[in-house]
Amino acid sequence: MRLSCEGVTIRRGQFSLQTDATFSPGTHLITGKVGSGKSTFSLAATGLLSPTSGAFTREGISTCMVTFASADSQATALTVGGEVTSWGLHLHDLPSGSGFDGKADLDLAELSAGERKRLQLACALAKPYDLLVLDEPYAGLDCRVKRQVAAWIRDGGSGIVLLFTHETRALPPITALHEIRDGALITLGALPAALALWRLAPPHIRWFLAKGAVPKNLDPESIREVAWTIHV
After folding, report:
1. Going from the N-terminus, what domains does the chain have, and what CATH number goes with each?
2. Mapping DSSP to helix (H, G, I), strand (E, B) and coil, where does residue 87 land?
3. DSSP letter at 20?
């Protein structure tokens, strides 16, 4: 199973993004500044936007799903039960801790924006896909739910997950790190070695590296482990 970008250029107005990246099974963290093209690439990766030049090659990928930053843009029903059914699921199929048991008749309009986002992600992560693209999945969620979503991603299927997010405190274990810089999506490589190449690394990661302590990964457990070695 593989998603390959061969000489890909994506243009939208004055914006342009180039890449030759390849994605294999695992969770790929793709970072970049606001407006760098993360959402544009997420659309192209799933075939919703055609590249201006080059091609995406999908090997062994027969099922694909993308979630958007705003859950409301993806909702298709009026009730919780109806929304779950539209994903081809039942309430009992949702991952542990989703919090929607017994709420099938609840109107979506009665949910907060964060609850609607949690429902969207619970549905998307309830079954495996060969390619799952998550565009800012943590937007609008509180800290507890962010950690919950990270666990859902961690415990998901064995396909390719492209995770586009500014979140750095509630991540699942990451297979490979990628960064959009200067109009190009660049693969930095597998963790932990890729952390030293991460220009947009958050302050706590830069602090660890300055101390000579490199976390094994970016999930909370790995961060706690390296922090403990510093403070002991």
Report:
1. 2-63+128-200 (3.40.50.300), 72-126 (no CATH)
2. coil
3. -
